[in-house]
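User: Predict structure, ligand alpha-L-fucopyranose.
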Amino acid sequence: MKNIFKFIFLAGTQLLALESKAQNNTLWYKEPASVWTDALPVGNGRLGAMVFGKVDDELLQLNEATLWSGGPVKQNVNPDAFSYLAQVREALFKGNYQQAHDLEKKMQGLYTESYLPLADLHIKQTYKGNGAVKKYFRDLNIQDAVATTRYQVNGVTFTRQVFASAPDQVIVVCITSDKPKQLNFKISTSSQLRFTHSVSNTILALKGKAPAHVDPSYVNNKKEPIVYNDNDSCRGMRYALLVKAVSNDGKITTDTSGISVKSASAVTIYLSAATSFNGFNNCPNKDENKTALASLNEAVKKPYSKLLEAHLADFHKYFNRVSLVLNNDRSSNINLSTIERLRNYKKGANDPGLESLYFQYGRYLLISSSRTKNVPANLQGIWNKELRAPWSSNYTSNINVQMNYWMAEDCNLSEMHQPLFGLIKELSVNGAQVAKDFYHAQGWVTHHNTDIWALANPVGDLGGGDPKWANWAMGGDWLCRHLWEHYLYTGDKQFLKNVAYPIMKGAARFTFNWLIADSSGHLVTAPSMSPENDFIYAPGKTGDVSISTTMDMGIIRDLFDNLAEASRVLGVDANFRDTLMAKKAKLLPYQIGSKGQLQEWFKDYESPDPHHRHVSHLYSVYPANEISVSKNPELAAAAKRSLELRGDESTGWSLAWKVNLWARLRDGNHAYKLYRDLLRVTDQSDYNYSEGGGLYPNMLDAHPPFQIDGNFGGTSGLAEMLLQSQDGNIHLLPALPDTWKNGEIKGLVARGAYTINIKWKSNKVTGAEIFSKNGGICRVITNVPMVAKVLNIQSKKTQDAYELTIPTQKGKAYQLAAAKTP
Ligand code: FUC
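Assistant: Predicted complex:
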C-alpha cells in the first residue's frame, strides 16, 4: 500500500478532494470484516455503527445509545429486605458466613434492563459482468473518525466512506465510483427487535417498540427472557430509524423493501435514529419520529462535503488535544495491515507506533461513545449487536463503568465525563429511595449494576443473584470520586458546589448509617464483600459476605477525605467535616497479611482463586491514592506483594487495572509488560470467558467477550506511566518503561488544571511545557534537574528526584528545560 493515496469523488453538487494518509492513527485491513470483532466502530456519542467493509453485501450494524429495554424503575420491590439486615449482621459477627450469604439473598431487588441493538443496514451492490475484486482496502482513521472501504471491480474503483456526525446527529455514508454511473445497489434494513417498515417522502423507516423487559444473559430460568408488551406504554420504548439516499445523477426509488439506486456516480445515504426515551424517571413518551426526522431533514439540505467539514472540525477539536510519539515512531510499520502488526506484536515484535495507536484509540472510542446527556458509555461503549448482550451491556459499578472514565480528565476529554455525572445524579435520586426502602438509611446508595433507568437496588430478582456481586453496596461511594476528580482537574468550583458536593454528602450520609461499631470500637461495614471474590474461612469452607473488606474501607476513607476537602474549598459544613474525620479515624485500618500482602479481608483469609481478576483491595493505590510509594511505603510494598501474588494473567479490564496499579507503584517495566498483554490479539471471534484478556482484530478489548473498559483502562494506564499528579505534585515520567527511551506527549492534563507537554530522550525528561488554566503553585517532579525558563527557577534535589516549584498565572504557559548538571 502506498503511504499516501488520494481520491476524488463527487458528492452532492460538490467536488471534494480528500487526502487520506496511512499513518499511525489508522487501523487498516486487506480484507472485509467476516465477524463483528473485525468490523470498525464509528459513533457520535449517541448513534453508532460497526462498519464491516464488505464488497457485495455491506453491513453496518447500528446502535442508538438510549435504546434499552424496560422503563422507569419499580419502587420498593422488596419491602421485607430491611428485616433481614440485623440478622445478616448477627450471623457475620458470629462468623456464620453461609447464613449471612443466604440471608443476603433475601435482601435483593430486580435485575437491570438491557442495552439493545438498533438495526442492520445492508447495501447490496450489483455490477455488470462478474469481475474479480481487486485492490481491496478498508480503514478507520481515528483522527478524522472516518471509515473508508475501497476496491476495484471491472476497472472501476468504488469507495465508501462512513462517519457519525455529532454536529448533524446523523450517520453519513458516501458511496462513489470513479467512472460515471457505475453504482447499482439496494439498501435495506432489518432488526432483531420487533419492527415494521414504512416509506414516506422517499424516506425508508424502520420503527418498533422495544421489549418491556430483557433478562440478563446469565439468567436462564424463565420461559420468556425477552418480554414484549404492546399495551404498556411505560415499559418498552419506541424507536425509529430513518434512511434516505440522495444522488445527483442516479435513479433512486424507495419502497418498504428498501432503497434502490441505479446508474449513479455518487450517492449519499443519511441515517437518522431516535428513541422515545424521556429521562430515567419518566415513561418513554418522547416523539422519536419527530426527533429523527428533524435531524434527517436538516442533514439532507447539506452536501456531503459540508457534513464532512463540520464533522472533522468537531472531532478534531477533541481528538487533536493530545498527541503521542514513542521512540520517534511515526510510521515505521504503517505499511503492514493492523492485523499483521498485531500478530507480529503478539510474537514479541517491537512496535511503539502500535502502542501509541492503542492509546489514542481509547480516546477515539470515548469521544465516539460518550456524548449523550446522562447516558455514559456502557460495557460496550455504544456498540452492541446482541439482544441479550453479555452482562446486559449495562453499567457495572464495582469496577467497569468507573474504568471507562479513568482517562477522561487526564487525557483531555473532560466533556466526555459529563454523561457519567448525569447518571450519578440520577442514581442519587433513585438510590435515596433504595437507601430508605432497603436499609432504612438516609442519603443514597447504589449497588454493583445499573442501567439507563438508574436502577440502584441490589440486583438478583429477589434472591437469584450471588451476594458477592449483587449486594455490594459501595457503588455510589466509588462513583463520587469521579465528581471530585472533575473538580481537581478543572478547578470548577460551581460544579463542586452545585453538582458534586450535595451528591457526595448524600453518599456520606448513607455511609454514616451503614457503618456500625464492632466489639473493638472500630467502625466497620457488615455486610461487606471484596467484589466477586471468595475467601476460605475454614478447611473446605468458602464465604463471600464478611465484615469490612479492605476495599470498603478504602472507598469510604477516600470519600470522607475528598468530601472533607470539598467542604474546606467551599467553606461550608465545618462540623460535618469534623464528623467525617472523626469517623474516618475509627475505620478498620489496613492490615498486612502473613505473606506480606495487603490483606483483602478483615482476617488473613486465603482465596480459593488466588489469581482472581478483581484487585479490589488495591483501590487505595489506584484509582484512589491513600496508599503510595512516597506516603506510606510499607503499605505500598504490601500492595505490590498483593499484585505479585495475584499474577498478571487475567481478563482485559483486569490487565488494564494492573497497568495503572504498577504505574502508581512506579514500576514502569511491569506496567509495560501488562500493556503488552492487553494488546495480545485473539483469534476467538467472541465469547470465551476462560481465555486470557487481550484484543480483537478491530482492537476492541477482549474481556473476552468484547468489553470496552479494557480499552479505556489501557489508555489511562499509558497516561499514568507518563504523568501523575496526586498529592499536589506533577510528576513527569513517573513510571517510564525502559523500552520507551525517547518520546513526546502533548496535551495531557494534570490535577490543578494544568495542560502538560513532555519530551524525553534516553529515558530522561529533556523539556516540558506547562499551561496553567487557573493559576496557582505548580510543583513539578522529574528524574533530572530542570529549570523554568524566563523565571529562571531551578529545581531542587529531593531524596529520590528533583522538585521545581513554579508560581503560575492563569492562562500562561511555562517552558521547562533540562538544567545543565553542575
Ligand atoms: C464484573 C466482572 C466480570 C465482567 C462483568 C461485566 O462482574 O467480574 O468480569 O467484567 O463485571
